[in-house]
Automatic annotation (TrEMBL):
It comes from Halobacillus salinus. GO terms for molecular function: ATP binding; ATP-dependent diacylglycerol kinase activity; metal ion binding. Belongs to the diacylglycerol/lipid kinase family. Its cofactor is Mg(2+). This is Diacylglycerol kinase. GO terms for biological process: phospholipid biosynthetic process. Keywords: ATP-binding, Kinase, Lipid biosynthesis, Lipid metabolism, Magnesium, Metal-binding, Nucleotide-binding, Phospholipid biosynthesis, Phospholipid metabolism, Transferase. The keyword Nucleotide-binding applies. Residues 1-130 form the DAGKc domain. SMART domains: DAGKc.
Length: 303
């Protein structure tokens, strides 16, 4: 009999997971999985819970939460020899990763995807000692996501980020960086750089539309120095997918990226603080098997 461990964050998003958990457990059991669950209690707990699931040789690990919880679970699984298959139930404020995998926002439909049983091996990223599935980057704007208080997020959802973003706009200023990507170089003043594994970043599905999650390559995006008005305009263009020809938007691909700065710059790894630069980003080719909807996820991305 196959075994499944559900690691869920009871505080994620609008805090709905606990109510539906008995139904989810029952559905897994009906499908033939011997299933148990772990409720996370604090930051970092999902990583330990994932490591425990590996020790106990679970066949399937399900991460139920937002991007933060999924990231913690991935961090617990990435280094291990025995790698269970990974399911995602998106119940967070931000669910970029689930969106990138075409996993429905509806809890029961997300469970359907896992129980249908189709998986594909996908790339994940590592920067220094942190793993990520979505995106890592640096620049003042990327520091916004962890400045939004959790209570505010529960109440306002995605809107909290935009409000905080507007408040922080005047602080956004360029930084000098040196970037080495697969043996090539970029040096200059930038607003922000992003190293992306998926095509769904911050709710902007069209940011890197061709990005594949199974090709061993990151999409490296660099926004060069510009004033705030230009930056806001570029962000608006990006929301519509019309940013790719902008003269100050650089879009490159690489499997290994090294970034250095003279001044202190924080790294944002899947929306959370990930230490300081310098950083070396490594794409781990088809590293983990994820449950996906077979009919929607094609050519390495969600169509
Ligand atoms: N019981 C808990 N109480 C408070 N925080 C927790 C608990 N369990 C986990 N956490 C932390 O909450 C963080 C955010 O969780 P998650 O991503 O699932 O929810 P979210 O609502 O989408 O939040 P975010 O948008 O910040 O990611 C996790 O990275 C984890 O560190």
């Amino acid at each position: 009999m196959q075994t499944a461990r559900i690691i869920y964050n009871p505080t994620s998003g609008r805090e709905v997971i606990r109510k539906v958990l008995p139904d989810i457990l029952q559905r897994f059991e009906q499908k033939g999985y011997e299933t148990s669950a772990h409720a996370t209690t604090c930051a970092g707990d999902a990583t330990e819970a994932a490591q425990y699931a590996i020790e106990r040789k679970f066949d399937v690990v399900v991460a139920a939460g937002g991007d933060g919880t999924i990231n913690e679970v991935i961090n617990g699984l990435a280094e291990q020899a025995h790698k269970p298959k990974v399911g995602v139930i998106p119940v967070g404020t931000t669910n970029d990763f689930a969106r990138a995998l075409c996993i429905p926002r509806n809890i029961h439909k997300a469970v359907d995807v896992i129980l249908e049983g189709y998986t594909q091996p996908l790339d994940i990223g590592r920067v220094n000692e942190h793993y990520f599935m979505n995106i890592a980057g640096g620049g003042k704007i990327t520091e916004i996501s962890y400045e939004v208080p959790s209570k505010l997020k529960t109440m306002l959802g995605q809107l909290a980020y935009y409000l905080k973003g507007i408040e922080l706009l005047p602080q956004i200023r360029p930084t000098r960086v040196e970037i080495e990507y697969d043996g090539k170089w970029f040096e200059g003043d930038i607003m922000l750089f992003l190293v992306s594994n998926t095509n769904s970043v911050g709710g902007l599905e069209k940011l890197a539309p061709a990005a594949r999650m199974d090709d061993g390559l990151f999409d490296l995006m660099i926004i060069e120095k510009m004033n705030i008005a230009e930056f806001v305009r570029l962000a608006t263009l990006a929301a519509q997918g019309n940013h790719l020809d902008h003269p100050k938007f650089k879009h490159l691909t690489a499997s290994r990226v090294k970034v250095k700065t003279d001044e202190k710059m924080q790294l944002n790894v899947d929306g959370e603080f990930g230490g300081l630069l310098p950083g070396e980003f490594v794409n781990l080719y088809r590293h983990l098997d994820f449950f996906l909807p077979e009919d929607k996820f094609k050519d390495g991305h969600c169509k």
